[in-house]
Amino acid sequence: MTVETAMHRLREHFGGSFSARSADIDCHSQDESYFPRCPPDGVVYPNSTRDVVDCVRICADELCPVIPWGAGTSLEGHALAMTGGVTLDMSRMDRVLRVNHADLHVVVQPGITRKALAMELRDTGLFFPVDPGADATIGGMAATRASGTTAVRYGTLRDNVLALEVVLANGTVIRTGSSARKSASGYDLTALFVGSEGTLGIMTELTLRLYGQPESIRAASCAFNSVKDCVDAVITIIQLGIPIARLELVDATMIRGFRRWDSDFNMPEIPHLFMEFHGSPTATDEDVRQVEKITRDSGGQGFRWASRAEDRKTLWHVRHNAYYAAKALRPDCRVMTTDVCVPISRLAEAIDITLRELDSSPLAGPIVGHVGDGNFHITLLVDDTDPNEIARAKGIANRINDRALELGGTMTGEHGIGAGKLDFMRKEHGESWDVMAMIKQTLDPDNILNPGKVVRIANDGRPFPALPSSARSHDNRSV
Amino acid sequence: MTVETAMHRLREHFGGSFSARSADIDCHSQDESYFPRCPPDGVVYPNSTRDVVDCVRICADELCPVIPWGAGTSLEGHALAMTGGVTLDMSRMDRVLRVNHADLHVVVQPGITRKALAMELRDTGLFFPVDPGADATIGGMAATRASGTTAVRYGTLRDNVLALEVVLANGTVIRTGSSARKSASGYDLTALFVGSEGTLGIMTELTLRLYGQPESIRAASCAFNSVKDCVDAVITIIQLGIPIARLELVDATMIRGFRRWDSDFNMPEIPHLFMEFHGSPTATDEDVRQVEKITRDSGGQGFRWASRAEDRKTLWHVRHNAYYAAKALRPDCRVMTTDVCVPISRLAEAIDITLRELDSSPLAGPIVGHVGDGNFHITLLVDDTDPNEIARAKGIANRINDRALELGGTMTGEHGIGAGKLDFMRKEHGESWDVMAMIKQTLDPDNILNPGKVVRIANDGRPFPALPSSARSHDNRSV
Fold first, then answer.
1. Is A450 on the interface with B (CB under 8 A)?
2. How far is A17 from chain B, CA to nearest CA, in Å?
3. Residues 151-180 of A with CB under 8 A from B
4. Residue, of B213 and A476, whose pLDDT is higher
């Protein structure tokens, strides 16, 4: 029962779908987080649920860790082989199995990316709304309970996965949920696996909710003199229940980053809201009218429309590339990202204290946020050769997390725990964290599924090495 | 370690908040299901989370079953003491702890009923939308993942519980979720407890989402010549994504029941849709226009408006009392209810086959349904002194359940499993049912929390008695 034997057996079984070549190992050693390289012992590229079952069974026999890999865009080390083992690269399981127009859902394999799914759906009149910055896989997004700019209207992966096929740690294949829109039938295993980060089972098929393309889409930006004014407008919009589809905060520093990154981008360097409205022409007209009034009352400087599809695309293109834009402000820096989410009434407070802290720090930290959800990110720009800077940035990030918990929120709205946020789990969840560990130990008693993520448990004589302290910081390419 | 010792200790500990008087035992022996009386050995009326902890600890010591009790309106025997033990009547824990206007949520104790909560919220401009027929407690509704007439727009309890306080089987108190609108922080324990029917823990505090009272509410009914025409209209409304707030099917037989039950009710005895629209005046105008056209195209006979609050109330009052109205068709009968939910594209098929089956049966079975969700109920009217009729009704119910599963749906959209639907769990969930049992055994290894519900597991030497066959049928007062 060794990892070596596992690799031997996997090679025998999978032939060309197994690799221990350095090229394959290398590109699965690092995700978009700041963790040091964690090379797996081998990589399996399954083509089917059967392949996943076979791989898991061999690894269960040999007590070898199995780490599912999507697009490698995790921001918290989710897909790293912290203790070696085999990386299960899901990229070949990337098909759309069925589009069900009548029921507004689609069945996909986990390896399809969100952009590839959008392409597949482009002629159907339907769309899947969830859009993290990265072109992540749907499996990875479900595993981390991801969201993006549209969650304020359409929800997160929690709200948009109807059913799953999952391979358990012993190789059993189960199905959770159904194609019905609701159910009261037993424990909600779908919700349990969504957000479990590959630690309870490996998703091999997902049924996702789709939505009709809105008849009218209108996007706009609005400038404000202060972040506080922006946030005041956001709070009113949300409290009035206006069904806005996107509501994003971009602060002055981030606008400066956008301008450096894209020379055609010419918004003034003051805080902005980026917005989008979906609905019938009448409904979007009404939403726009209401939101225009609210932004005016909060000191907004009038809407700047992006009515053509092309202009809309530019707006959201820069927003989705905030990571690169932030880096443009300090080339060669590393980015450390926070991801707190607070109740909407505490959003102004949470951002305000953070801004004051950033003001009194030499570090730059542009802010972007899915503020309609109460979720915002500080992208701290750090010289990672300077231990003082790293310590300072970590101090800021930790205080932001602490504050979010004090305000009744969570330290992660959408990026997940991975290995990067374990230190805050006890503080956020108290004894609920033990319940998570109990569930993990029940479903994966040998701790072979993505060990070292979400929960901390004894690993049957396979102790996790202490992470080097540099492994606690972050380098995130999409925030 | 006996139930007798447990009762003795509970009486000592709780004094007047414990009772083994026959009046208290009697009224906790039967819910609204058709199960035979199951008297608990005693009843505890907790006043606080502390009381729940103390009760659970004593029962854990003595291996005594603890069965949480809300309003006793379960349709599947959820709250019955199948193997004796103590009933934990939550009715004294019925307070609203905090209304948070700014964040649109409310923190309540589990024993408050949905109508009492509505009263508490009436001057706030906010409301909690979920409305099962019965005036159930919020704790009971969360435990069964209940829904009602508004789920088509506002979702079920799954979508509307943000956070929980839960007492586990060993007396540990945990908190799940947060007040933030979304989170990617670890396993979704809130979703795991919602719908777990008191088998994994006892909810002692719930944070619920609230919604702003819509500016405009418009209700209407529309008559059709056939159920098929009704359902065709429903399918189109849902597929177009019209945000209708209520969309209920009532068949001709049920209309006849309404007329018998309420002599002022004078709709023609043909199938109807009952509808409600929420939004701004402009938005509801637009929704109404669209839906009117759709119903016309499907052979609908024009809207009959219930624009005054009073008329609306009447419409939903009869709908919520469908159980009594059904019984009015055959006084002294028993009611056996089905609760399937199918993908919307299969709704016409599911109802059509069922109708043909009912037509060829001597049994009456009025139909009502939250058809916007794909969820419908057949209220079979049965003479329970006639074994042939009971067998016939069960045959119909079983075939309806089987068909729902074949069509990709679930056998229960909102009533839950309890003890009544255990026989269909394996068929619906396959090996996922074993995963549910594993979770149950982990969180409640001695099986003291509501034993005999949702899952079937060995009970540490305390085998469940086989249910008498009559216990498989149903008598539901609110459907």
1. no
2. 29
3. 151, 155-156, 158-159, 168, 172-176, 178-180
4. B213
CB atoms A373 and B181 under 8 Å = yes
pLDDT of residue B459: 54
* Helix extents (H) in A277-386: 281-297, 309-320, 322-328, 347-359
**How high is the pLDDT of residue B1?**
72
* Cα separation, B174 vs B204, whole angstroms: 10
CA distance A413 to B28: 43
Query: What's the pLDDT score for residue B36?
Result: 85
Tell me which H or E stretch contains A26.
Answer: helix A22-27
What are the pLDDT digits (tens) for B86-118? 999 999 999 999 999 999 999 999 999 999 999
Q: What is the mean pLDDT of chain B?
A: 92
CA dihedral B390→B149→B137→B315, nearest 10 degrees, is -90
Contact B329, B359 (CB under 8 A): no
Instruction: Spell out the long-range contacts of B401-405 with Cβ–Cβ below 8 A and sequence spacing 24 or more.
Output: B401/B338, B401/B340, B402/B427, B403/B340, B403/B350, B403/B353, B403/B354, B404/A180, B404/B340, B404/B341, B404/B342, B404/B350
Residue A184 tokens read as: 């009261």
How far is CA B366 from its chain centroid? 19
Yes or no, beta carbons of B178 and A408 under 8 Å apart:
yes
- Give the integer Cα–Cα distance in Å for A450 and A199: 5
User: What pTM value is reported for the model?
Assistant: 0.94
Contact A102 B438 (CB under 8 A): no
pLDDT tens, residue by residue, A111-149: 999 999 999 999 999 999 999 989 999 999 999 999 999
Distance separating alpha carbons of residues B454 and B417, to the nearest angstrom: 6
Partner B contacted by A373 (CB < 8 A)? yes
Going by C-alpha positions, the residue among A375, A413, A408 that lies closest to residue A247 is A375
pLDDT at A185: 98
Q: Which of B448, B186, B107, B205 is nearest to A430 (CA)?
A: B186
| Secondary structure element (H or E) that encloses residue A216, with its range | strand A216-223
Sign of the alpha-carbon dihedral angle for B413, B418, B420, B424: positive
DSSP per-residue letters across B139-186: HHHHHTT---TTHHHH--HHHHEEEEEEE-TTS-EEEEE-SSS---SS
β-strands A367-370, B18-19 pairing:
unpaired
Identify the pLDDT of residue A459: 54
- Pull the structure tokens for residue A171: 């190789």
**Higher per-residue pLDDT: B465 or B429:** B429
Helix, strand, coil percentages for chain B (3-state, nearest 5): 40, 20, 40
Q: What is residue A471's predicted lDDT score, i.e. its pLDDT?
A: 34
CA dist A132 and A201 (Å) reads: 23
CA distance B402 to chain A (A): 14
Please write the tens of the pLDDT for every residue from B290-305. Answer: 999 999 999 999 899 9
CA distances from B212 to A392, B10, B104, B287, B446 (A): 43, 43, 8, 19, 44
**Contact predicate A233/A348, CB 8 Å:** no
Chain B: give the shortest CA distance to residue A402, in Å: 14
Question: Where residue A23 falls among pLDDT bands split at 50, 70, 90?
Answer: very high
Q: Is the pLDDT of residue B476 over 90?
A: no
Tell me what the mean pLDDT of segment A304-326 comes to.
89
Q: CA-to-CA distance for A450 and A439, rounded, in angstroms?
A: 14
> How does pLDDT run across B3-38, given as a tens digit for each residue?
999 999 999 999 999 999 999 999 999 988 878 899
Taking Cα atoms as reference points, which of B96, B106, B110, B109 lies closest to residue B128?
B106
Helix axes B432-443, A432-443, angle to 10 degrees: 130
Are B287 and B279 in contact, with CB atoms under 8 Å apart?
yes
Residue A167's closest CA among A83, A88, A247? Answer: A88
B221's CB contacts (< 8 A; 6+ apart) are: B267, B272, B273, B274, B275, B303, B304, B306, B315
